[in-house]
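Weekly structure sync - notes
Attendees: PM, LS, DV (DV joined late)
Agenda: review two folding runs queued last week.

Item 1: First target. Sequence and structure tokens pasted below for the record.
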Amino acid sequence: MLVTSLVIRFKPIVSRFCWSIYGNFVRVNYLILFILALALPVQTLAQELNKPKPVQLSGITVTEDQSILPFVTILVKNRFKGTVSDQRGFFSFVALKGDTIQFSEVGFKPNYFIMPETQADLYTLVMPLERDTIVLPMANIYPWPSKEAFRDAFLNAQVEDDLYDKARKNLEAQMLAEISAKMGMDGSENQKLYMQRMIAQTYYAGGQQPFAQFGGPNSLPIPSTLLNPFAWAEFVKALKRGDFKKK
């Protein structure tokens, strides 16, 4: 009975205390939500203010001697974006402050550029690349697979004549005679031979050809009328008529 009476007596006090705690909790939650609502735009604005400004990066890629270097690969390493310079070495893309930009080309050492802070909207750049010379170790290449094969090839090799021996052989009398016999006539010699044949045919027309044409290189030519029987007959008739007598 004593416990029941105590509960009935203190129940209103306990209820008022619980409602007071609940009310304070609700008010605290609303206050936290209100503060967060005010802080969110401020944080967003701060992020926008701290965001790096995009800059149009343009330029050309050249060699050490300032010659145009086309088709260079350009990579923004921290953002995995990039481009390629054209045939005149020109490139243009959007970059941000702090971007690490790599320029690479086959046969050249890669070069790097870090985008600086700038207030301008356009940044120009001339990027030189140094030639990459690779020195390879010496390699001796032989046409023989082994020393034994080299020895056999060396012992059985046929050494050709040098230029002096070749010239001496080409100027020997027998060699010159053989070359002369195989060599045809030129245009002047052909024209001379043709004219000689035409004159011979005209001179010996209707008569005996000279013996020289039958193989005798030293034989004398015989006039065509000397061995012509008809010419002898006319000669005899002329004698009988006295054509050859002095008048």
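Item 2: Second target, run right after the first with the same settings.
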Amino acid sequence: MSDVPHVGIGLPVYNGQKHIALALDSILAQSYENFELIVSDNASTDRTEEICRDYASRDRRIRYFRNPENLGAARNYNRVFELFTGGKYFRWHAHDDLIAPTNLEKCVRILEESPSASLAFPRRRYITWEEGRAIGSAWESVAGVSTEDGLAPGRPTNRLESFQNINFAAVLRLYGGWFPVFAFAMYPTELLRKTHLLGSFPGADRILVAELAMLGDFVEIPEELYFQRLHPASGWTMRKNLQEEAAWFDPRGRAPRHPKSSLYFKYLNAIHRSPIPLHEKLARYFDLANRLAEAGMNGIRRKVGLGPLGAYSRIETRMPTEAQTGHTP
């Protein structure tokens, strides 16, 4: 299999006993077999270690590591990439999510066909926290049908016209609910090494995705091959405020006093340290300035009861129920 690209899958976990076996099963069921699965246990206090060691004893592609203390999510996510022995492609996998059997195969195929790509992503479907039944397609929100906001019905979301030719300027306008699609995509390893990986601050996934957008194209697989579990203990729903968000990324972290301003400075720094040519950096600075001006104008428009500007505007809608969808992964 030396001519087949080797893929690394990084699975960071903390107290994941309830769903990690299902996540491991979905990875081991892949039609694409030339992969290495790195599990980094962030000092779990439940049966996570026992479950992972059992799986590792039965499949040599699994490498299990346990941290002596909880490093925080950011350092643990970065650790699984650092532990990857080397290969052409890499992806992260949340310990409670599932992927379809052809996920790796189709991501590798499209990346092999797209030398300018910095990531490949399939479409996503939400699954329930207990039974794992599908409750709605995230992609229905492209047409303005369903929400993209998980367990909080009625909150605003993006109305995305298309994922074709998504770029840095588009990433700046994406609502937070879309970022797991790109955070759990597949990346060329060498391009991912040119980023600063996941920072230890709220919104770090946005900065990583922006860095990747500066390095290449995002290519879509128009099939639902990624199943994101939404449940009360998931990172998306358990953090009630910005301080909890900061502590999730880094136990010693503190919430920024001015989160929006802080994030814009992070984008600014990401452009500055990117290895892209100077003329491209200047264009990205212009994109960021444009977004800042747009955000300021949107604030004024909201005060007078008008909708936001831009193609990536938010809409008010609701999540479809299980009865409305009837889909299973």
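Discussion on item 2: Confidence is low (pLDDT under 50) at residues 138-161, 233-239, 311-329.
Action: LS to circulate a short write-up before next sync.
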